[in-house]
């Protein structure tokens, strides 16, 4: 029986695809004079920003500069991000049913403050694990394991819901059931051995009956 649900953020709770890809495209154009098609930037979805830009920098100084400019452009486009349909009502129902909820994201604490807090969803979550909280990030199990340890919960009573291969790999490495958020996932056919495919946020409620 599921008693705890852990969620990824980008592509699962919040639709940030436009914001993240277009802000990076803008940053690369302005800082490096590179014009990268949006479809070639989809790889960044679901991974930490530092990892996303490594292919474009040679030094730590260049990395910090590019990250800073990217953050600025994310904020400029932030109004284009939105909560996926039916997510908040699902969170409300889960909260009423006293299901423990948590966030495990590749965003840093600062990014969560700037990009997530504006949606006023924090009230539903008992814990928030960000890229600032662990040395190793998804696809390693460390972030999910940290949430489990801090909440004092059982893995067999927990599910992690996300939209990326890194999300799935992290959950499986941690020994936790993985639910694929089909509403935000790309290239569904690339996900092999998925535990559960969830077509819509409302279907999360059905998991409580299993």
Could you explain how this protein is built, in words?
- This is HAD hydrolase, family IA.
- One of its GO terms (cellular component) is cytosol.
- The strands form 2 sheets. The protein has a 6-stranded parallel sheet with strand order 5-4-1-6-7-8, with helices on both faces.
- With 210 residues, the chain is an alpha/beta fold.
- The longest helix has 18 residues, at 60-77.
- The chain folds into 2 domains: 4-15 and 82-207, HAD superfamily/HAD-like (Rossmann fold, 3-Layer(aba) Sandwich), CATH 3.40.50.1000; 16-80, DNA polymerase, domain 1.
- It has helices at 17-32, 49-53, 60-77, 87-96, 109-115, 142-151, 165-174, and strands at 4-7, 14-15, 82-83, 100-104, 127-129, 158-162, 177-181, 196-198.
- The radius of gyration is 17 Å and the shape is globular.
- The model has no long low-confidence stretch (mean pLDDT 95).
- It contains 7 helices and 8 strands.
- Helix 1 (17-32) crosses helix 3.
What is this structure, in a nutshell?
This protein is 36% helix and 14% strand. It has 210 residues and is an alpha/beta fold.
Number of strands: 8
**Helix/strand order, N-terminal first:** EEHHHEHEHEHEHEE
Enumerate how many helices there are, as a single number. 7
Quickly give the structural class: alpha/beta
| Named CATH architecture of the largest domain | 3-Layer(aba) Sandwich
> Any idea what the shape is?
globular
Classify the fold: give the CATH topology of the largest domain: Rossmann fold
